[in-house]
Every structure is written in C-alpha cells, then in structure tokens.
C-alpha cells in the first residue's frame, strides 16, 4: 500500500517535480542561463489596438474596471492592475504561463492596446515556480493552488514513506542512517550559522 | 536520506507561500516593527539610478562595522538605500538616508513565516562565503535528487508489471493536467 501511494503520487506529480527542480536550478544559476543575475522579463509585442466601447463606472474601483475590460476582450483570468480610473489610464497584466498579456486602457484614446509577452523558457519556469495561493477569484488558479498543496503533501509523504521503506531494507540500514545523521547535522549547522 | 531535512523543509515552507494567512493572520508579515539599534554619519557615493553596485553596499556594511559578505542592496525611494542580510536567525537591515548622510541599523524579531520563506528562498552562489555556497550546492543536489526521483521512479514502476496500467493512467493524466493548466491559467 505504502509503495503504491509513493508510486502513484510520483507518477501523477512528475511534471511538477521536474518543473520545480528545473526552475530552482535556473534561479540558482540565472547568470549562466540568462546572462543576468536578476530576473529578465521578455519583451511585449503589440497584438492589436481596438476601440473600447464599454462604459466604466468612474466611481468604481480599478479592479472591477480591469475585470470588465478583460471580459470585453475575451481575456478573463488571473491579473494585476496598475493605474486608476481617475487618471484615465489602467495597465492590466494578465499573467499566463505561455505568454502574459499587457492591456493598456486610455480614456482619452477610447481604446485598449493589447500586447503579448514573448516566450522565454527561463521566465516561464520561474513564473510557474512562483505561482501559488488562493488570492485570485478564478477556478483554474484555485485548482493550481490545490495541486501545489497536493505537491507539498506528496513531498512530505515521499520523505516519510522513503524512511519507512529504508527501514524495511536491512542491507542499507547502516548506510542510510549514516547519511541521514550527516544530512541532519549539516542542516542544523546551516540553521545555526548562516 | 542525506537530503531528507531539505525535502521536509521545502515541503513545510511551501505552505507558508501557498497559505500566507496561516502564518500571519492575513496582516502581512508578522514580526513587529523594525527597531533602530545604531546609526552613523555616512557619505558614500551612490549612482543616481540603476541597481546598487556591490562595492557601494560593501562600503555601507563596512561603515556599520559588520564583517560579512552575505548581503544585498536595493533602492527604497529616491534617496534611500536598504541593505539586507539574509540570515536564518536574525532580521537586520541597514538604511542609508542619502539626503541626511546617515546610516541606520534596524533589527526586528523573526517569526515563523520569515523563517520558513527565508529558508525556502535562500540560494545562489552570489554571496561570497563558503557556508552560503555550500547551502547553494546542496540546493542543487536536492534539485538533482528530485529529477532522479522521477527517472528512477519511472524505471521502478516499469519493472512492476501489475502496476503498469494504473501507473500509466496517473502518469498520462498528470502530464495532461499540467498541459491543461498552461492553457487555462
């Protein structure tokens, strides 16, 4: 039973394991992969500029207006918004793993400009790594956050079922114990000193 | 077995990212207010814009009489530079108020959330210190272990004929779910 759980979780979550491992290595060695120590956002390219006929409630908040604009142009989903209706300008970032969108609404121009971010493998992996939480009102984001929770449970389950399986293999008990003691001692040293 | 403490740490600390309110009552990072513990007159030259050169931050650290290579710096306003010191135990920062020619050292109590997220996010070889580089090296080893887990797990699964169909269902559904997210998110 323990082995089955260990295996099934591992097979289902394999893409997440690979994504988290690859993205962590990438963040650790950004200079090697991207040539810069800081995270570089790929550039945006203009997709289209269209008239925006919708009426935005100026007394409403910018978040509600952004949701309205996204709905109007068919890009609903997780987003961030900058600017305000009073200023007459909103910049909406519709965050997506495969190419985010930047939507700029300008009251004077009565239009929205839609730009799409070019794909960059390093940015893509890092964005997926950082994606978490139940803070957005979209079901796909909540399901992703549930999978992140499942991944956390799986990592802990792998660790504990791994210990259980090791304990049942008499031939590797001493070597395993030595590695575990060494690892734990080193971890404690790091916590105490750095 | 060697990497076990890191696996457990990454598992638990991820909860602090996915459920920040569990650790902070929904009020942002706990830990109280920064308290000033010392200050010095300071007149280090800082470029007007762009990132803070390492040498400038190093000079500020030296002015505060600290002997460490583990720090980073960023702008927190037009005339303010913050130097931070990643540490598992202490929360400490230097604030350089350029207008006032003054350098201030602040400290704050560290709570579970900062401890966990700090540990999770710690990495990289840019801090010039053996212990920090060793930590970063182990982070790499944990990543390699994660990848090996997948590869060896698949090999072990293929060697168990009675698990082959069920395993294939989970493997394929995992990949399809992942790809589905790329489209739906």
How would you sum up this structure, described in words?
The complex is a heterodimer of chains A (194) and B (185). Chain A has seven helices and five strands; from the N terminus they run αααβαββββααα. Chain A is an alpha+beta fold and 194 residues long. Chain A folds into two domains: 79 residues, no CATH class; 72 residues, no CATH class. A five-stranded antiparallel β-sheet of chain A has the order 1-5-4-3-2, with helices on one face. In chain A, helix 2 crosses helix 5. The mean pLDDT of chain A is 89. Chain B has 185 residues and is an alpha+beta fold. In chain B, 49% of the residues lie in helices and 16% in strands. Chain B contains six helices and five strands. In chain B, helix 1 crosses helix 4. At the A-B interface, helix 1, helix 2, helix 6 and helix 7 of A face helix 1, helix 5 and helix 6 of B.
Summarize the model shown.
With 194 residues, chain A is α+β, with helices and mostly antiparallel strands. Chain A has 7 helices and 5 strands.
Topology of helices and strands:
The complex is a heterodimer of chains A (194) and B (185).
Chain A: H1 2-12, H2 14-28, H3 30-34, E1 44-51, H4 62-72, E2 79-84, E3 89-94, E4 101-106, E5 111-117, H5 121-130, H6 139-167, H7 173-193
Chain B: H1 4-18, H2 20-24, E1 35-41, H3 54-63, E2 72-75, E3 80-84, E4 91-97, E5 102-108, H4 112-121, H5 130-158, H6 164-184
Antiparallel strand pairs in B: 1-5, 2-3, 3-4, 4-5
Helix pairs in contact in B: 1-4
Identify the strand order in the major beta sheet of chain B: 1-5-4-3-2
The average pLDDT of chain A is 89
* Rg calculated over all Cα atoms of chain B: 22 Å
The major sheet of chain A is characterized as: 5 strands, antiparallel
In total, how many beta strands of chain B? Answer: 5
Q: What is the first-to-last residue Cα distance of chain A?
A: 40 Å
DSSP summary, beta strand count of chain A: 5
The count of domains of chain B is: 2
Give the integer mean of the pLDDT values of chain B: 88
Could you list the spans of chain A in which at least 5 consecutive residues all have pLDDT below 50? none
Estimated share of beta-strand residues of chain A: 15-25%
Strand order of the largest sheet of chain A: 1-5-4-3-2
What's the helical proportion of residues of chain A? 40-55%
What form of chain A results from the Cα inertia axes? elongated
Low-pLDDT parts of chain B are none
Approximately how much helix is present in the residues of chain B?
40-55%
Provide the succession of SSEs of chain B: HHEHEEEEHHH
- Indicate the radius of gyration of chain A in whole angstroms: 23 Å
Number of domains of chain A: 2
Strand and helix order of chain A: HHHEHEEEEHHH
């Amino acid at each position: 039973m323990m082995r089955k759980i260990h295996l099934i979780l591992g097979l289902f979550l394999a893409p997440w394991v690979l994504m988290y491992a690859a993205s962590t290595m990438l963040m650790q060695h950004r200079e090697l992969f991207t040539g810069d120590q800081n995270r570089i956002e790929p550039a945006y390219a203009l997709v289209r500029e269209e008239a925006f006929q919708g009426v935005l409630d100026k007394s409403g908040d910018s978040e509600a207006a952004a949701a309205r604009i996204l709905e109007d142009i068919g890009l609903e989903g997780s987003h961030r918004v900058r600017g305000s209706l009073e200023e007459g300008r909103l910049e909406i970032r519709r965050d997506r793993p495969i190419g985010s969108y930047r939507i700029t609404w300008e009251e004077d121009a009565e239009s929205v400009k839609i730009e799409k971010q070019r794909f960059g493998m390093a940015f893509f992996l890092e964005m997926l790594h950082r994606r978490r939480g139940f803070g957005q009102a979209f079901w796909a984001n909540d399901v992703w956050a549930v999978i992140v929770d499942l991944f956390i449970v799986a990592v802990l389950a792998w660790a504990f079922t791994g210990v259980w399986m090791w304990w049942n293999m008499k031939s590797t008990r001493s070597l395993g114990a030595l590695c575990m003691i060494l690892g734990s001692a080193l971890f404690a040293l790091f916590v105490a000193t750095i | 077995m060697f990497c076990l403490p890191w696996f457990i740490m990454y598992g638990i600390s991820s909860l602090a990212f996915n459920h920040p309110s569990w650790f902070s009552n929904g009020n942002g990072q706990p830990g109280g207010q920064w308290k000033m513990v010392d200050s010095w007159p300071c007149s280090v030259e800082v470029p007007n814009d762009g990132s803070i050169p390492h040498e400038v931050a190093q000079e500020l650290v030296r002015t505060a009489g600290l002997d460490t290579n583990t720090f980073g710096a960023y702008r927190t306003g037009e005339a303010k530079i913050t130097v931070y010191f990643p540490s598992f135990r202490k929360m400490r920062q230097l604030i350089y108020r350029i207008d006032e020619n003054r350098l201030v050292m602040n400290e704050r109590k560290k709570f579970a959330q900062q401890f966990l997220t700090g540990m999770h996010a710690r990495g990289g070889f840019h801090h010039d210190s053996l212990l920090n580089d060793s930590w970063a090296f182990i982070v790499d080893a944990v990543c390699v272990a994660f990848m090996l887990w997948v590869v060896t797990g698949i090999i072990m699964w293929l060697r168990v004929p009675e698990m082959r169909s069920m395993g294939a269902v989970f493997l394929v559904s995992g990949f399809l779910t992942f790809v589905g997210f790329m489209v739906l998110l």
